[in-house]
Amino acid sequence: MKKYLYKKPLLLLWIVLAVFTTGFYYERLTGNDRTTFLPGAATDGHHQIISDCKFCHGDGFEDEKVLQKSCVSCHGPELKEAKDSHPMKKFRDPRNADRLEIINAMYCVTCHVEHKPERTGNMGVTMPEDFCILCHKDVAKKRKSHADMKFNSCDDAGCHNYHDNRALYEEYLVKHGNLPAQLPKQIVVEKTLNQYFTELDEKYRNSLTIDQQDSKLDQLNPKVFDQWQKSRHAATGVNCSSCHSKNNKWSNYADVKTCENCHELEVLGFKSGKHGMMLSATNATVTVANSRLNYKSKKNKDHLSCTSCHGDHKFNVDYAAIDACLNCHEDKHSKNFKKTKHYATWLNTKNGTLESTAGVTCATCHLPRKTVSQNGIERTLVQHNQNENLEPNEKMVRSVCMNCHGLRFSLESLADNELVKSNFNGVSKINNKGFEMALERELKKRAKKTEENNEG
Amino acid sequence: MKVNRFQLFTTIPVATLLTVSLAGCQKEEATQSAGIAPKAMADAIHSVLEADRTVYTKKVITRLVKKEKVIKASEQFEDDKALPLPAQMFRFGSELVAEKDSGFSYSLQSLWPINKQNEPKTEAEKKGLQYIADNPGQNFYTEEELGGVNYYTAVYPDVAVAPPCVDCHNDHKDTPKTDFKIGDVMGGVVIRIPI
Hints:
The complex is a heterodimer of chains A (456) and B (195).
Chain A: H1 2-7, H2 9-30, H3 54-57, H4 64-81, H5 88-91, H6 97-102, H7 133-136, H8 139-142, H9 170-176, H10 193-200, H11 222-229, H12 232-235, H13 240-244, E1 245-246, E2 249-250, H14 256-260, H15 264-272, H16 277-282, H17 306-310, H18 317-321, H19 323-326, H20 332-335, H21 341-350, H22 362-366, E3 369-374, E4 377-382, H23 387-390, H24 396-399, H25 407-415, H26 417-421, H27 434-455
Antiparallel strand pairs in A: 1-2, 3-4
Chain B: H1 5-34, H2 38-67, H3 86-99, E1 105-109, H4 123-134, E2 140-146, E3 149-159, H5 163-171, E4 185-194
Helix pairs in contact in B: 2-3
């Protein structure tokens, strides 16, 4: 045999190649990373979670209901909160069977096909941009004002959104359309984490001093203890062992799971957002190098966790709210932040010129405050899932912008892409005609009512 | 009695066939007697829907909004901290039923809809809504095929039972009809049962 193989070098090469190829694909099939088998690059929204096909596809690729279940398991709560304008339940009615034949709105993947980068547009939409026409082609019959509008302009100027119209519906425009650009009082809702813990357990009322630390280390790093003593942790009775001791075993390191023990909802948000979704899907934390954004520290291989932004003993939320972001993000919008009036308000809250609730940071808009109920206690937390209001950006109008600005000013500012890039350093060039249309109809209605009353 | 081989070979298959057919007939009869005819089922569903809708309109909306004036009813009831309109209550119920895959569906439609999505779409809906408008007090029953499925479709008149019904419809900026009176047929409840 050996002699035979020496005589047939090509055969030997084939055998080696076959063994190598089989081994490679066997490893890929059975290992954690199956990206080799991807039919096409994933969307920006999902690229962090694609190494494990099962995360979306379950055990097979045949049943689209499995895929739908996966979509809903991540995006369902957000759509419910957004009061989805086109929920699946609306299309279950048999009278919509003709519509479903044109566009099957029962499945997310009808409009959001994955692995098709060549036809994927904004927000992972793979439908032609005038898809609204498929069901709303006769909109101008009832809305004469819409007669000359093109069907690829429905979402221009922040007028309509397929899913989330909470800030866009007609009565809302009428009710809030006349608000000034700057509201008389700008208020960023204060978070109530400390109040929540003290209400939950009396022990969090007791602050700790350096003498009360319970570290198991032989050599103490004074810098670390100084940072801890000045932190909210020491002020609320959280000792070294709370984070570094598990089952009486000391560990120098604390990970996301450690934080999750007390900050469950914050970590849930983190794991649902851009910074932590990889952890949810693959049990590995994302690095800057994994990102598709243009970062200055692209070579940074540090894995992102809670301490990446909050520090590991300082837990400085001021740093986490601006400089931690700018430490990695270097797109135009981010780089321009410190040139804006938003940043000036923040500086003014720090020097006491403005009230503490008036300052705006990166986190004010992208990790906004949200009031929830936890363990029967109502509290305001920082939503660490920036996906919740990121795209389309008018999703942040009600939860963020309107804490300080009028509705029209907010919608028009967000619809101006150049203004967004400048981080709102200027005035929008967009005119949202929807406000005039809504107001005109409202005034007509009121005039008619007055006429009827006079006649009556 | 002597049975020859020919009789045996002919009697057994005939007897078997008879037994199987009779059993089949019995099963069919049993199914029919145990089941409920689509019309009876649609009528029963409608009587519950109509009762709930009337109770909400009279005991909640009319009492709290019109008489006691303690709260408003609004299309944007969450933003306005108000009560949902009777038509919204009806739709929310029908959407919950649809989510549960309950084997039937229902909706509220009108020849004069405030929301254009609620105008009749299928031939059965168009005929049915016209019929109940032209023949007050009568229902309309038919069958139709939608998306490859056959349905028993029943259309029932939806009558203005209280002042808020006519006031709201007559005043709405999207209404195509502004002279509704109490007792008028304002639309119809369409119930579909797959058959």
